[in-house]
Amino acid sequence: xGSFIRxxxxxxxxxxxxxxxxxxAFETRVDSGFSYQSFPTAKGTATxxxxxxxAFRDSSLALAGPGISTGEALRSVKLADGDLSLRDIxxxxxxxxxxxxxxxxxxxxxxxxxxxxxEKNNGLDAKVNxxxxxxxxxxxxxxxxxxxxxxxxxxxxxxxxxxxGRTHGLLLDGPHLLARAVMVVDKNNVLRYLxxxxxxxxxxxxEAAFAAARALL
Length: 217
Known about the structure:
Elements: H1 2-6, H2 8-20, E1 27-29, E2 35-37, E3 53-56, E4 59-64, E5 78-80, E6 86-88, E7 97-101, H3 108-119, E8 129-134, H4 138-148, E9 154-157, H5 163-167, E10 171-172, E11 177-178, E12 181-185, E13 191-196, H6 206-214
Parallel strand pairs: 7-8, 8-9
Antiparallel strand pairs: 1-2, 3-4, 4-10, 5-6, 7-12, 10-11, 12-13
């Protein structure tokens, strides 16, 4: 957590930007009560790992850790569950999984990404396990899920040191947040789809991730 102390200005700026960017965008009301906004969808993907950067406003944020690519195995790393118990992400094998990765649930784009995963998967949640990973504490994740009325997504926390992010090359080293990304992992823990948004303020292409998951069923 020392990164928070070393980089307070960039962290505050980052959270503020992600929270308020797009607040004036056109909103569409859906039956769930959540207002979907017209955030831009990322085209293409950034590369995971050290040496790559993610755009943030007029600057770039460096990724840390060894990268991962499609065709490689999901790496063994422990994340905190809602009751603070530790869960190895690779032990979720046996089903196809969509893993949505967000910097912080307390931002507009991250909130929408998570609602989209939960509400717009067109029945995939009956056959595919849905996960959201962020550095928010398990308590904050639980509060978010209850307030958003999301019960078909499992929330896992990387708050203990960003181990999941660093192990997969998805940790934004300065502000100690996760990059915005979506993974599709098959029953054998092989990564079959990965998009890392090159710009932190953009939504990932969730429909492409859904299509990749359906192709594995």
